[in-house]
Amino acid sequence: MYKLETRNANLFYGEKQALKDISIGIEPNTVTAFIGPSGCGKSTFLRCFNRMNDLIDNTTIKGTYLLDDEDIYAMEEVYDLRKKVGMVFQKPNPFPKTIFENVIYGLRINGIKDKNILSERAELSLRNAALWDEVKDDLNKSALSLSGGQQQRLCIARTLAVEPTVVLMDEPASALDPISTAKIEDLIYELKSKFTIVIVTHNMQQAARVSDKTAFFYLGELIEYDDTKKIFTNPEKERTQNYVTGRFG
Length: 249
Description:
Layout: E1 4-13, E2 16-26, E3 31-35, H1 42-48, E4 59-67, E5 70-71, H2 78-84, E6 85-88, H3 99-103, H4 105-109, H5 115-128, H6 132-135, H7 148-161, E7 166-170, H8 178-191, E8 196-200, H9 204-210, E9 213-218, E10 221-227, H10 228-233, H11 238-244
Helix pairs in contact: 5-7, 7-8
């Protein structure tokens, strides 16, 4: 069974069609990379899985979108969906609170008050985000005092604290320096044993390094979806070949 699946997914912003008839199945505990030139629909498609596009006016969404075979758009509580499908954005967005309060923010919203549970979940999430050793003695410091790379790992920890099963990442390292980027990539590789991860990236080397499967998008269409190694070494479609070899994009 697929963790995430779409069948004939279409999305319109007003009259403009941003996604065209996309069908895909994403397996559990894998890293899937969405690649393609700017404006090709990959971030729009990513946001379908936690219904972030619901927030955009004049958006029409058609087709079937499934999480564990359950219809994402039939769920009455979007909040429940977002507990299962976490999101990490392009730029780190820590809250102006302590490191500890950032991590447990979602738990507090869910009404969890037990200090032992909050402390345990904070440590586990920070460990899972490969940040614990760097901040364990500074949990009461402002999250805004951390470096950009640390802030992004803190945002990942905050996402993990509510125990999602899927983590969506929209260009999570594009605002970071090479050392921080490498840490995020190592982290993605580690996390797939516990989570299903979907990452949008402009960096094809990054897609090749971290993902098991790669989907190539162009002008709102899914052109090709296969094992990452095959996409980068022996793609079936000429447009994929031209993109991954740098002939356009």
